């Protein structure tokens, strides 16, 4: 059986690999930036100690699992991570990413995302979901470029930042689910609805 714990992937410009303890400084550079952090669920990191704790909780622990997709995004020829991309193994199989802002607008996340989604499809995941704040429409554009389809919108009191966010939920089905929709966020939110005319945002 193929290694399904974050198998290394390669694209035209990128190497996608596991984070290691040697990457903690690079992880800090990604996650300390306030602008990068605006639409991430956690607060900007304030120290290398916080970056080490983040690595231990979010990566070292994840790599202990039999199946995990938690990648450092590296440019070929440079082993230093410039971002991260992941699909989690919880029920929603949530797809997410973050990238240092000096590398924005180069199609890097789209390129990495195509490789990761192809891998999870090969490994038998039935679907992935992804959500974005309605105030971050560029993220929805990435999801559409990857072939995901908008399903619905919902409100959530976002934690730990503790403010109200309207999210758009996208989904990609890999197997014979037809039009299956992952409804957990819809069901848990008192305010949920389907928007029209968002596909060209």
Q: What would your notes on this structure say?
A:
It is a single chain. It is built from 6 helices and 9 strands. By secondary structure, it is an alpha+beta fold. Strands 1-2-3-4-5 form a 5-stranded antiparallel beta sheet, with helices on both faces. A hairpin with a 7-residue loop joins β4 (about 80-85) and β5 (about 95-100). α1 crosses α3 (about 50-60). The longest helix has 15 residues, at about 110-120. It starts with 8 loop residues before the first strand and ends in an 8-residue tail after the last strand. The model has no long low-confidence stretch (mean pLDDT about 95).
Kindly list the characteristics that best describe this protein:
201 residues, alpha+beta, five-stranded antiparallel sheet, four-stranded antiparallel sheet, 6 helices
What is shown here, in short?
The protein has 201 residues and is of the alpha+beta class. Helix content is 27%, strand content 27%.
* Percentage of β-strand residues: 25-35%
| Biggest sheet statistics | 5 strands, antiparallel
Strand order, main sheet: write it out: 1-2-3-4-5
Distance between the termini: 42 Å
Radius of gyration: 17 Å
Overall residue-averaged pLDDT value: 93
Overall helicity:
25-40%
Q: How many beta strands in the DSSP annotation? A: 9
Order of helices and strands: EEHHHEEEHEHEEHE
Report the structural category. alpha+beta
The number of helical segments is: 6
Unreliable stretches (pLDDT < 50, length at least 5) are: none
Shape: globular
Secondary structure blueprint with pairings:
Blueprint: E1 9-10, E2 14-17, H1 24-31, H2 34-37, H3 48-60, E3 69-75, E4 81-87, E5 95-99, H4 108-122, E6 127-133, H5 137-145, E7 149-158, E8 163-173, H6 184-188, E9 192-193
Antiparallel strand pairs: 1-2, 2-3, 3-4, 4-5, 6-8, 7-8, 7-9
Helix pairs in contact: 1-3
């Amino acid at each position: 059986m193929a290694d399904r714990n974050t198998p290394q992937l390669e694209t035209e410009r990128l190497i996608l690999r596991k984070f290691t303890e040697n990457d903690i400084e690079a992880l800090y550079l990604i996650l300390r930036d306030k602008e990068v952090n605006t639409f991430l669920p956690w607060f900007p990191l304030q120290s290398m100690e916080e970056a080490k704790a983040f690595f231990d909780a979010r990566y070292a622990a994840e790599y202990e699992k039999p199946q995990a997709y938690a990648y450092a995004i590296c440019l070929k020829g440079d082993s230093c991570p410039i971002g991260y991309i992941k699909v989690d193994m919880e029920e929603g199989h949530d797809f997410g990413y973050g990238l240092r802002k000096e590398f924005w607008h180069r199609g890097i996340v789209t390129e990495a995302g195509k490789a990761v989604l192809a891998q999870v499809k090969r490994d038998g995941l039935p679907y992935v979901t992804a959500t974005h704040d309605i105030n971050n429409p560029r993220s929805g554009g990435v999801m559409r470029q990857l072939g995901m389809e908008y399903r619905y919108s919902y409100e959530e009191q976002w934690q730990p930042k503790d403010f109200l966010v309207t999210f758009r939920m996208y989904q990609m089905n890999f197997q014979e689910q037809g039009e299956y929709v992952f409804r957990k966020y819809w069901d848990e939110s008192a305010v949920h609805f389907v928007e029209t005319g968002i596909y060209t945002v």
